[in-house]
Amino acid sequence: MGSSTCGEGEERSVKRGRILRWDGPTPPLIPHLNYAHSMIKRMATHGHTVALVESETGKQWTFSELCELVPRVSGGLAECGVGLGDRVLCLTPIHIDYTLVLLAIIYRGATCVPINPTLNAGELAHVLRVSEARWAVVHEACVSLAEAAFTYLPSTTLRKMWVMGESPTPDKPSLHDLFSHDPIPPLTTTDGLVPDKMAAIMPFSSGTTGPSKGVLFSHRTLHVPNMTHLFLEQLQPEKAKMTKEIYSRALLLLPVAHSYGHIMLVNNLFVGTTTVCLTKFTPTAFLETIQKYQITVCPLVPHLVKFLSDTPLLKEYNITSVKAVMSGAAPIDTDTINNFEKKTGIPLTRAYGMTETYNAVTRTRPPPDDNPTTVGKVTPYTEVKVSNI
User: Fold this and answer.
1) Does residue 49 form part of some domain?
2) What sequence ranges are listed for the domain AMP-dependent synthetase/ligase (predicted)?
3) How many CA atoms lie within 13 A of 268 on its CB side?
């Protein structure tokens, strides 16, 4: 994936394939800045709007609270030795404190290694070896898993562990202990940060064979979805207000350690969407959350799209607040798309991407311009090679 410099509709033939690019005007240059610092400045414009809600408890963070706490948490990390280029494991299911951890690590110039806690101890130990993470922020339900994984490595590997939630032992402080630290400024290019070379996050991809593999994404790459959003708003200003209304309240039940869930979360933060986090999926919890919080947009995977189409529970809940549903992470067939839209009356958009591309590389257009037999058109800042192998 790279920056596009092509004009409208350009297509370039290459040996054994074609290169396809965004079929519109040239998008603006990507900023050469600390990603987390840019995000904080953007989130500050959303003020006291609620940014994140934990659906089960109602606990929440506003955008202004996040903007205040990220530099404080980053200061706590710095005091414990986390610096430029260091790797910090973040082992957690969906949790509203994940945003604080993610941005605080990147703000400090370090690399966040987000991992889904479905791994076993041996698999997590592999991640730790590959990533060379020396610090860890771990959800309270995952502490024993993290401890077991670190036993596979030299005893000097782990320098510090913080716990999201209740800290089980005195030697493992709570993440909330970092909230009281003095705020620090972000690491910038004057401090040695190279935004287009240094990794901001390191998710792991299962690939097709062998153990999972780490994928390094620079600060520059993380800016791409944000710049795409701003660029498309400028191209279609008449749709910007409508889009903001559609994206007012989003449901997030996708793993934040995977690109799809991560992108949805950070896009919501950038746009000013209130994100309602559902930690554990059950059919009733899913539908109750949509109804209770008047969710307007749902990023889903195909089997959940099919569930919404087929479940008899649907008639027991009011989901008329939902204005858009997205499907990704796996193929979805035309019959499922048509059945969903017919039964719910909700437009379904689709995107194609993978961990290694970070952002979606293609995306369908909203009805009536959608073609359900395709994966859509190439997104800005992206080029796609089509080959017959």
Assistant:
1) no
2) 43-387
3) 33
